[in-house]
Structures are given as C-alpha cells and as structure tokens.
Amino acid sequence: MDREQPKRRLWSWWYLLFILLCGVSLWPPFFNRIEPTLIGIPFFYWFQLALILAGAVVTAVVYFATEE
C-alpha cells in the first residue's frame, strides 16, 4: 500500500519558452506600430492576439514535454 512516487524535477529547459514569450510581450517597441495591417487591423492589435494563441500553444508544448 505504500507506493513510492517518482521524484519530480523542479526545473526543465522547456520552461525557457515561457521566458521567451514573456520577454516578447513585455517589450513594446517591438510591436508598437501600425504597419503591417491584417484585414485592416493594425499590427499592434493582431500581434497581441497572436501572442495569446502562441501562449496557449507554448503552454501545451511545455505541459506535454514535461509530463512524466
């Protein structure tokens, strides 16, 4: 009845993807412009939406890569 659970690692190199994503989103000079537009939407807005989608993809990748 006393099952020994495997020890979980606290750190993985996959977590650096989160730091990269946060760095891009916290550096406004990178995306503070109007051109190029996408379907009439300025770059500033559609890039932020793309970051949300990229964040979901990165979260899924890190989750499945670090799952034991």
Q: Please, could you describe this protein's structure?
A:
By secondary structure, the chain is an all-alpha fold. The chain has a domain at 31-68. It is 50% helix and 0% strand. It has 2 helices and no strands. Helix 1 (16-25) runs antiparallel to helix 2. 0% of the residues are buried.
Please write out the topology.
Elements: H1 16-25, H2 43-66
Helix pairs in contact: 1-2
Mean pLDDT across every amino acid position: 86
Overall morphology? elongated
* Class inferred from helices and paired strands: mainly alpha
SSE pattern, N- to C-terminal: HH
The largest pleated sheet is described as:
none
Q: Whole-number radius of gyration?
A: 18 Å
Secondary structure tally, helices: 2
Terminal CA distance reads: 21 Å
Strand content: under 5%
Name the quaternary structure.
single chain
Low-confidence residue ranges:
none
Task: Tell me the number of strands.
Answer: 0
Approximately how much helix is present in the residues?
40-55%
Key traits:
mainly alpha; 0% strand; 68 residues
Short overview:
Keywords: Membrane, Transmembrane, Transmembrane helix. Helix 1 runs antiparallel to helix 2. 0% of the residues are buried.
